[in-house]
Amino acid sequence: MVSTPVLHYIYDPLCGWCYGAAPLVAAARAIVTVRPHGGGMMAGAGRQAVTPQLRDYVMPHDHRIAALTGQVFGDVYFDGLLRDTSAVFDSEPPIAAMLAAEQLAGRGLDMLDRLQVAHYVEGRRIAETPCLLTVTAEIGLDSAAFAAALAEQSGNAVRRHIRETRQFMRQIGASGFPSFVLESDDSRRLLDLSAFLGRPEALPDWLRTTLST
Q: Side-chain half-sphere of 15: how many Cα atoms within 13 Å?
């Protein structure tokens, strides 16, 4: 356990609701240390090629997320990436990129934020290394250093991270993405932040009150 409060953020880069919760994560970072844990929703056997069936499944959810949270989903995502049957959705590479950015500069959450925009707004293939290297430059990290860190965090390393995240989820009783766990002193509490979707400005005061009690 920790004496300094930590908000554990269980996420997946290809989870639309995690993109919807991005403003909550940004608001929380101003109050408490946020520690990300990648869950691998579309990793390994769960990786998926883009198909018309996948598009038909995710689009209603994405429209609901947009309506509830105000987050923007780009036309190039809906009518470009989600129609590109040569694309594959794989959570492992963007989670590895998160780990690499964290290792290099403590900027894993900044990387996640940029990758979510690249995917949901710009319709880019965030499971592919060229895209990850381009996004790295866009957030101001050294591309060569990042490429080395990405190689180190890929493969067995990212798979171990995903296994540890899933074990943590089982321990805390988290059933999906996103999940938030507040760790303070000798306790861990699974938080329901759904009431703050679309109104992230209300979250900091609530967190301060929660931490004080």
A: 22
Which pLDDT value is given to residue 1?
45
Average pLDDT value over all residues in the chain: 96
Architecture of domain 6-212: 3-Layer(aba) Sandwich (3.40)
Q: Are 65 and 19 in contact (CB under 8 A)?
A: yes
**CA 51 vs CA 75, 86, 124, 197: distances in Å:** 17, 9, 16, 29
C-alpha distances in angstroms, 181 versus 6, 35, 88, 184? 8, 10, 30, 10
pLDDT at position 3: 65
Q: Which two tokens stand for residue 41?
A: 């929703």
Domain assignments of the chain as residue spans, ordered by start = 6-212
